[in-house]
């Protein structure tokens, strides 16, 4: 079977990581990922890249994350470790979005502590379920999948693979009969678009990395998104009803991106969702909407998948809006004292770093 460029890149990085020193490994990883996206960049002569202000905002945001990392390597939204699995996973990916990985580079030690903490959580789970909700489980699965192959030695690599396989099994057995997922890992626990998006994107990342995800699972997800589409507006419902009053801007951005990854890229369902978002721009970018950072974390990736024109029109708007929203301490909407972090900060960094395309799941 012919392997995709993304899978080949992952495999090359995995092997090189095992034999190269830390600094050389980082350089090789960056080179390989740059080569992977070079054909895309060559076709994007008019596409926006990072501005100096955006790079500075990313640097400030990452410094804030380093300042708020807990002694055990995690990040959390409260002193008692609230949302630690989710925020640690997002924080790891925010550094990877700038080609920084556990064990290499100036922040390699901090990222390695985060990786060790996340793997510890995976090992502590008897069935592979990480966190307290499927939101957290999906983010942890995604972070581990994107780290896989970027670690210092084979033992880490094998431990991550084991954790991913167990995590994916949790997701597969928890899919609802209608094709979606809900807050808890139960096949009869209901379904909603928000959780379904987060969980499925983790599955898509795992599949890109070589983990088996049945075609039947993906087909059921597409049917779920079809059932969640508003017949009047083309937006996605939070809970499938097909009527406009249940439209959600955040779920429309996430649903469009997930449906694209599920193979429905050129479908009317996806195209209508993209129109739904663009018709509401720049209002939904400049003003507060429900779950603002969650919404745009996915919406910008949907525009990347949609093509050069959509991305070139969308990214500068959200880039400039996020720069204005950043707090003096480098965070986005998080608390400003103590070892307290927020999911908004790493999400904002990942959005700003979109032009890098270093994380495979965010490549077109």
- The helix/strand series, from N terminus to C terminus, equals HHHHHHHHHEEHHHHHH
Structural class: mainly alpha
Total domains, how many? 1
- Number of E-type strands: 2
Overall helicity: 55-70%
CATH topology: Glycosyltransferase
The CATH class assignment is Mainly Alpha
Strand order of the largest sheet: 1-2
CA-atom Rg in angstroms = 19 Å
As a percent range, the share of strand residues is: under 5%
Largest sheet: 2 strands, antiparallel
Label the overall shape.
globular
- Specify the number of helices: 15
Low-pLDDT parts are: 13-31, 33-45
Proper CATH architecture: Alpha/alpha barrel
Distance between the termini: 21 Å
Please state the average pLDDT score.
88
Descriptive report:
The chain has 364 residues and is mainly alpha-helical. The chain has one domain: Glycosyltransferase. The protein is built from 15 helices and 2 strands. The chain has a two-stranded antiparallel ribbon. Helix 9 (215-227) packs antiparallel against helix 10. The chain is globular and about 50 Å long.
Which descriptors would you attach to this protein?
61% helix, globular, 364 residues, mainly alpha, 2 strands, 15 helices, Glycosyltransferase, single chain, two-stranded antiparallel sheet
Could you outline the blueprint of secondary structure elements for this entry?
Elements: H1 5-19, H2 22-42, H3 52-68, H4 84-96, H5 108-124, H6 134-147, H7 154-173, H8 193-209, H9 215-227, E1 236-237, E2 247-248, H10 249-264, H11 268-279, H12 283-286, H13 292-306, H14 308-325, H15 344-352
Antiparallel strand pairs: 1-2
Helix pairs in contact: 1-2, 3-15, 4-5, 4-6, 4-15, 6-7, 6-8, 8-10, 9-10, 10-11, 10-13, 13-14, 13-15
């Amino acid at each position: 079977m012919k392997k995709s460029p993304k899978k080949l890149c992952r495999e090359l990085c995995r092997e090189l990581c095992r034999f190269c020193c830390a600094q050389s490994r980082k350089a090789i990883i960056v080179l390989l990922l740059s080569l992977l996206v070079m054909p895309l960049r060559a076709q994007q002569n008019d596409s926006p890249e990072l501005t100096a202000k955006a790079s500075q905002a990313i640097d400030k945001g990452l410094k804030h994350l380093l300042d708020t990392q807990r002694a055990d390597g995690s990040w959390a939204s409260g002193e008692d470790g609230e949302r630690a699995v989710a925020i640690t996973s997002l924080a790891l990916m925010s550094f990877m979005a700038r080609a920084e990985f556990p064990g290499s580079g100036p922040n390699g030690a901090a990222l390695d502590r985060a990786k060790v903490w996340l793997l510890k959580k995976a090992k502590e789970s008897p069935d592979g379920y990480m966190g307290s909700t499927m939101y957290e489980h999906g983010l942890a699965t995604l972070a581990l999948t994107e780290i896989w192959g970027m670690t210092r030695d084979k033992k880490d690599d094998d431990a991550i693979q084991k954790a991913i396989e167990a995590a994916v099994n949790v997701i597969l057995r928890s899919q609802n009969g209608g094709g979606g997922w809900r807050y808890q890992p139960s096949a009869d626990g209901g379904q909603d678009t928000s959780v379904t998006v987060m969980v499925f994107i983790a599955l898509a990342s795992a599949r890109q990395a070589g983990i088996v995800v049945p075609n039947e699972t993906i087909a059921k997800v597409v049917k779920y998104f079809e059932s969640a589409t508003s017949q009047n507006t083309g937006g996605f419902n939070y809970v499938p009803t097909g009527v406009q009053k249940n439209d959600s801007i955040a779920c429309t951005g996430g649903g469009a991106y997930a449906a694209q990854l599920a193979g429905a890229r050129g479908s009317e369902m996806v195209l209508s969702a993209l129109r739904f978002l663009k018709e509401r721009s720049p209002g939904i970018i400049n003003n507060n909407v429900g779950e603002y950072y969650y919404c745009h974390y996915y919406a910008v990736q949907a525009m990347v998948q949609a093509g050069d024109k959509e991305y070139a029109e969308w990214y500068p708007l959200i880039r400039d809006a996020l720069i204005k929203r950043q707090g003096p301490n480098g965070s986005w909407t998080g608390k400003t004292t103590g070892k307290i972090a927020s999911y908004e900060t790493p999400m904002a960094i990942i959005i700003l770093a979109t032009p890098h395309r270093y994380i495979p799941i965010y490549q077109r």
